[in-house]
Write a structure and sequence with these properties.
Chain lengths: ~425, ~250
């Protein structure tokens, strides 16, 4: 009974996600919106592939971008190679080529990187990542040097049923299809003997060896498969932006996917997808408003590591459990009560950060007095006023938050205790 | 018929200290063999050598007539030797059921498969369920192994060891820390699941040892000072002197 219920639950979830993906452009088809959605889809696949390593096999990689980059470059070269001969069908399938290229790279490099788990793996992945990134600048024929490699995805001007992949929204639908296929593939992987043994190797590699498994093989195959999916994501990047530069495979990209996956939550299959949504929105929307977005991103990451190491997915999972036990109503009002001073503190903090940023940057030119715009008014930053105001708001928010949190945590702990009591 | 396990001059040094000092030991197929000895004698170390958790410093190890010295743990496991640990060694974040299913996957031939659906593997499912019932943990099916009680974890430890159906089983202090009644259950379980198999067991509880073992070896400071039937060991003066640390002649 229970298992059939979960099946249907799961089916609904997948179907619902696909539907949302298909319908989203109907609500807002602005260029910014579509490119935001494209980027989210690509990063969903990339972050899910990263979690095949981190969440499922317990491998912390600092160099996963090499597989993403390999997929991107391979796809771009394939695109340029098929040139006029190809049809839209070829273009739609190209990310698979990117996946295969990354898979081959994984077969080649993975054997070395997966020899050991833990810190050794992390260090070797960093080293190999740097090595590949460095060599990308040494082989301009393959990687295009500083300029990168570009191409044109519209190789088939006639197309099929009007699809040429000229309009960005058509590429978006292609991405939706690939997200669906790749996510299904990676989910299926978690339900296989290898997927389960990867969990076992993550938990206790020693015991895994004593039930017959060579843990290096488990890590190796998982890495190769993870690379494959990262390569698909890379391939989609190539088609979306029609240019691939060395940045796709460097440490910055590797770091971004790590943070995305972690913030989303490595303990749940869908966690990385949530991370992709949040971080891409931050990058593109917040990044469009302020130059300090990376600082906010860093703060968010810090907050998650310290306060919610299970990521957003674990926060959602707890609410779902509370809801199922009929306890959500007990804590929900206190979220609001804490949320208000929390927002106040955040506003003050953002004010401080933005003012510091404005005061320290020299965009206005040497000697000019830095100002900050708030509700259409310019405030000069060489007076104490704005600083004091922002600091006061931050501190007041903080103090009120502490007060509100006391009650929130009491309710919360009470609810959790009831929950645990029910389980026994 | 070849022996299940044969050790020839097996030696192990940790740094300069010789912990196992040229052990020779033959354990026949189908035998239940207990290894006893004082704390720090090297009993666990001997198990680590046989199961290749540690490499030997010198000597040779044969499993069912085949030399296995220097093989990796998983290779030895695949040849039909399975072991438990003195310090519980399970998959903490996986459920009881998943722990046992992981323990049977290789032996059922699923290896590194990513083309089978776990849910569709009836044989793995049944085997795991059956072992779970044997060790009395069916009620704990979905419980993460890490939050089981100590006795339950010890039972799971044995379950993981026997699940694959290996025919040579090494158990390192399976009843340590158990109450009287838990020990009785564990002994009954061990007796049942090692029927027709070779069992080597390190055990401090003499009641368990003399009740279960066909033969006993006494390990003291890395040397086997006596091997024999329970009666022979009980009667041996050398064992009394060395193991009890007293000289029997004095009083
Ligand atoms: N990895 C190691 N490195 C160094 N010394 C070790 C190591 N493992 C064990 N020893 C030492 O080897 C000796 C034998 O240890 P072992 O655990 O085999 O004893 P044991 O007979 O199993 O004892 P117990 O009955 O307490 O379990 C001890 O003196 C121990 O300190
Ligand atoms: Mg021991």
């Amino acid at each position: 009974m229970i298992s059939t219920f979960f099946r249907r639950d799961r089916l609904l979830l997948w179907g619902g996600m696909l539907l949302v993906g298909i319908l989203l452009p109907r609500f807002s088809s602005s260029g910014l919106m579509i490119s935001l959605l494209c980027q989210i889809g690509i990063m969903m696949i990339f972050a899910l592939s990263y979690n095949v390593l981190l969440g499922q096999t317990g491998l912390l990689s600092f160099g996963h971008a090499i597989y993403y980059g390999a997929g991107a470059f391979a796809t771009m070269h394939l695109l340029n190679a098929i040139g006029k001969e190809g049809s839209v069908v070829h273009v739609a399938l190209l990310p698979l080529g990117g996946g295969v290229a990354a898979l081959l790279l994984g077969i080649l490099l993975g054997w070395v990187t997966t020899k050991k788990a833990g810190t050794t793996f992390a260090m070797i992945s960093l080293g190999i990542g740097e090595m590949v990134a460095a060599s990308s600048l040494m082989f301009p024929v393959v990687f295009g040097g500083e300029a990168g490699v570009s191409g044109n995805r519209v190789i088939d001007k006639i197309g099929l049923f009007g699809v040429t992949f000229g309009p960005q929204v058509q590429v978006y639908y292609l991405i939706v299809a690939w997200v669906f296929v790749a996510a299904m593939g990676m989910f299926a992987l978690t339900q296989t003997p290898l997927g389960r043994m990867a969990n076992a190797v993550r938990d206790n590699p020693e015991r895994a060896e004593f039930v017959g498994y060579n843990t290096q093989w488990v890590r190796y195959i998982m890495l190769v498969l993870s690379g494959f999916f990262a390569g698909i994501a890379g391939g989609l990047t190539a088609l979306t932006y029609e240019i691939v530069t060395a940045e796709t495979l460097n440490a910055y990209t590797s770091g971004a996917v790590l943070l995305m996956t972690f913030v989303g939550g490595i303990g749940f299959f869908y966690g990385p997808m949530i991370g992709a949504i949040l971080i891409v929105i931050m990058q593109i929307l917040v990044g469009g408003i302020t130059h300090a977005w990376q600082l906010y991103f860093g703060l968010l990451f810090l907050f998650m590591v310290l306060r919610a190491p299970g990521g957003f997915a674990s926060l959602i999972a707890i609410q779902r459990r509370l809801y199922a036990a009929g306890l959500f109503g007990r804590v929900a009002p206190w979220y609001l009560v804490s949320g208000i001073p929390g927002a106040l503190m955040l506003v003050g903090l953002i004010g401080l950060i933005e003012m510091t940023y404005a005061a320290l940057s020299d965009e206005e030119g040497e000697g000019a007095i830095a100002t900050i715009k708030l509700l259409g008014e310019d405030y000069a930053l060489n007076t104490f006023g704005p600083w004091l105001a922002a600091a006061a708001v931050t501190l007041a928010g903080y103090a009120l938050l502490q007060l509100a949190n006391r009650r929130l945590f009491r309710e919360w702990n009470g609810a959790l205790a009831t929950l645990q009591g029910d389980n026994d | 018929m070849t022996a299940a396990i044969q050790l020839q001059g097996v030696t192990k040094n940790f740094g300069r200290t010789e912990i196992i000092k040229g052990v020779n030991l033959t354990i026949d197929r189908g035998e239940r063999h207990a290894i006893i000895g004082p704390n720090g004698a090297g009993k666990s170390t001997l198990f680590h050598l046989i199961s290749s958790r540690f490499p030997v410093t010198a000597g040779q190890i044969f499993l069912k007539g085949e030399e296995v010295t220097g093989l990796r743990p998983f290779e030895i496991n695949r040849k039909g030797l399975s072991r438990s640990f003195q310090v519980t060694n399970i998959f903490h974040n996986l459920s009881v059921f998943e722990n046992l299913r992981c323990a049977v996957l290789w032996s059922l031939g699923y290896k590194y498969s990513f083309w089978h659906r776990l849910a569709g593997l009836k044989d793995a499912h049944h085997r795991a369920e059956q072992v779970m019932e044997d060790i009395g943990l069916s009620r704990r099916h979905e419980t993460p192994a890490g939050i089981l009680s100590y006795a339950e974890q010890r039972a799971l430890e044995i379950g993981i060891t026997i699940a694959s159906g290996a025919d040579v089983i090494l158990l390192d202090e399976p009843t340590a820390g158990m109450s009287k009644s838990e020990t009785e259950d564990a002994v009954a379980l061990i007796r049942r699941v090692t029927e027709g198999k070779t069992l080597v067991m390190v055990e401090h509880d003499m009641g368990v040892v003399f009740g279960l073992a066909d033969r006993i070896s006494v390990l003291v400071y890395g040397e086997i000072i006596a091997t024999g039937t329970p009666e022979e060991i009980r009667a041996s003066v050398a064992v009394k002197e060395a193991y009890l640390g007293t000289s029997v002649d004095h009083d």
